[in-house]
Amino acid sequence: MVSRPSSPPSPVSRSPSARARSASCWICSSITARSAAAASLACSVFTSVTGASYISGVTPLNNPDRVDVDYHHFAHAESESRRAHSTTQRLTVLREIVDAYRGELGAGIDSEWIHTVRHAAQRTAINAISELARHHAADDPRHTLELLETATGFDPYNEHLYRDIMRLQDRLGIHDGIPRTLALLEVRLRDIDCKPAPETQTLASALQHRHAQHVHISLAPTNPMSPRR
User: Fold this and answer.
1) Rounded to an integer, what distance in angstroms lies between the CA atom of residue 119 and that of residue 97?
2) CA dist., res. 36 & res. 112, Å (int)
3) CA distances from 21 to 14, 42, 99, 117 (A)
4) pLDDT (tens digit, 9 = 90+) per residue, 102-119?
5) 27: closest CA among 17, 15, 37?
6) Does residue 57 contact residue 40 with C-beta atoms inside 8 Å?
7) Which sign does the torsion angle of CA 24, 28, 32, 33 carry?
């Protein structure tokens, strides 16, 4: 049960330790389902960062348990991953982490307190999908490729991911995918006024050149048989 004081707390500034003594989770009144979910997310993340259980200056949601938030599932899966006793269990919860992560945590929330947990969530998701990719790399490279492509949505400016994708595309014979991968990286980096590193461009060129050389050799005419004497 969540205790509900008769009136909302005063919107004065309080320290995290003082906030932690409150037993209520507060979010704005007169809210739509979408804003309820956003507020519940804010409350969950704020609590995990500060140890507090309310956000000052707003009124309580009547039925907070009825608001489903991805972060709840994400945090639960992350906790379960630390308790997994077998490879199968760990792979299952890692998959749950990846499925629950929907991109930037609390997008649109600019408060300073969310930055730490936002970056931590991104790092957790990247680590989870990287571990899954390493596990499947030897026996299921195509699934590994799908995982890495998903990972670029989590961290769109991470060039290491794109280089690994190009290497896998070369391994799987998806040679026309290599320039597309490089082009996607270029578009995304343009958003932050950057260009692919020389190492990335060199790798893409080398893989395409090697494939072109292989095709050229394969299409070269064979030596005619020597005429009989």
Assistant:
1) 15
2) 21
3) 11, 18, 34, 21
4) 888 888 888 888 888 899
5) 37
6) no
7) negative
Cite the DSSP H helix spans in the chain. 16-19, 33-50, 70-81, 87-100, 114-136, 141-154, 159-172, 177-190, 198-219
The tens digit of pLDDT for each residue in 29-40 reads: 333 444 454 555
**Cα–Cα dist 45/25, whole Å:** 11
Closest by CA position to 103, among listed 145, 144, 154, 143: 154
Beta-bridge mates of residue 60: 26
Tell me the C-alpha distance between 19 and 78, whole Å: 25
pTM: 0.66
Are 109 and 86 in contact by the 8 Å Cβ rule? The answer is: no
Residue 76 CB neighbours (<10 A): 14
User: Half-sphere exposure of 104 toward its Cβ, with a 13 Å CA cutoff?
Assistant: 8
141 and 172 in contact (C-beta within 8 Å)? yes
Cβ neighbors of 7 (< 8 A, separation 6 or more) are none
Band of residue 3 on the pLDDT scale cut at 50, 70, 90: very low
Q: What share of the chain is helix, strand, coil (3-state, %, to 5)?
A: 60, 0, 40
Query: What residue has token string 């389902």?
Result: 33
Distance CA 194, CA 188 (A): 9
Q: Which letter does DSSP use for residue 11 in this model?
A: -
Structure tokens at 146: 């799908």
- DSSP letter, residue 79: H
CA 99 from chain centre, in angstroms, equals: 9
User: Is the Cβ–Cβ distance between 206 and 178 less than 8 Å?
Assistant: no
